[in-house]
Amino acid sequence: MPQCLEKLKRIVTVEPIIFFFMTSTFIMLPAYQHLVMDKVCQELYEDPSICADSGHRQNKEVESRSSYMLLLYTAMTSLISILPAMMLGSWSDRAGRRSVMMLPFILSLLSGGVLLAVVLVQSLSVYWCLLGAAFIGLTGGHVSIFLSSFSYVADITVESSSSRTLRMAIAESMVFVGGMVGFLLGGFLEQEFGLVAAFGAYMACHVFAILYILLWLEDPKPSYSTLNLFSTENGGQESGASILKYARLSFRAVLKRRPGQDRLKLHLLILCTFLNNMVAVGDNSVLLLYLMYEPREFTTATFGVFNSARMFLLGAALLGLFPLLMRCLKEMTLAKLSAVFRAASYVLLAFSTNTWMVCLVAVVGMPGGITQAVIRSLSSAIVGPDEQGAMFSFSASVEATCILISAIIFNGLYPLTLPTFPGMPFIIMATFSIIVLILMQWISEMPTTQPRLMLQD
């Protein structure tokens, strides 16, 4: 039995952590957006009974003000999380991955408590939600979960490129499996029991994740090198500026000279990560507002079902379709095809006018998650074993920055295009996906300098 347990611990590692975090995130996302729309409506009309009518919540003034409020929330999360995201990966190279995984879950519990208070106390302004954003940002939020989790996967899969890519794909699929469960559960809880139940489930997911990390997960053996160890001669002086030291290590891991064109490849892969996250953040920011607006007029429950189906298909593509296709196609080919399908799905979404067209978007975009899984695998293969956390930390800080930029673009653009062409933000998302396709083609044409880096088609 102990041997079976040890074997199971090597198979099941960070996947439940990503699952719990993403489930909680996608429970909270529509609930938070709904909370903002309700609060904005109440502040506009000063009569809670008026806002019980969905027609008042969906007029242009409420939609516009809610969009700008969501922009403030995203900006708060992004700005505060940049520094933590920059230093935590390098710190995890030295202190272990579990510590970094724990921090976002602990402060997210406090964030959930703030949002729960805003729901229960009618007199609290919608701006109190920004305090919840601050708690999430203090530990980097989802970017800290990703950098620690994918660094962990890189630590335990050093034997081959294909093994690492498949493990990265399985971990990446938990984003979508968690999204499926989160949207389905969140929509049901909100529809049947209200926002209190939704935010309660959000907090419960974080409790489960903390218990899993404490009771199940074991740190891989840390790697030490001159990159992540403080010099002994300056040890006393360096301790007072450790935060800056860890941030500098992240920059060093990305900017250092590497054989051939590996440094340029790494920079292009990080740029692809930036663009992919721009699209993901923009999608999450405006999709609910877009689908609830006429002529689509989705309810919260319908939105939850649609996103659950969409996330299920994305996760199924990574768990089932991707390993199957890797037997006959190379990973870079699959990554480029994934970008094409993702762009096509957003073009279709921009012109969707009814429910069946929106549902078709989920089918067309099914392979859309493959690109990012390949990008993470290739990025980790370029850097050394002692640079995994530092590299993912830099990448995570770029993701945190893109949260703000994406929110400014999409939450700022959506109210402006609402009277003319509401689908314009999704056309821009499709354009970003095409740029990712071009960059991936450029990377695939570069010569390979390391045997484990299989970039050519």
From TrEMBL:
Subcellular location: Membrane
Membrane topology: Multi-pass membrane protein
Record's keyword terms, sorted: Membrane, Transmembrane, Transmembrane helix
Broad class of where this protein is predominantly found: membrane
Family matches, as InterPro entries: MFS, MFS_trans_sf
Signal peptide extent: none
Record-annotated membrane-spanning stretches: 12-32, 68-88, 100-119, 125-147, 168-189, 195-217, 266-293, 305-325, 346-370, 390-414, 426-444
A Pfam family the protein falls into: MFS_1
Top-rank taxon: Eukaryota
One MF annotation (Gene Ontology) recorded for this entry: transmembrane transporter activity
Database matches in PANTHER family: FI18259P1-RELATED, ZGC:174356
Protein name: Proton-coupled folate transporter
Native source species: Silurus meridionalis (Southern catfish)
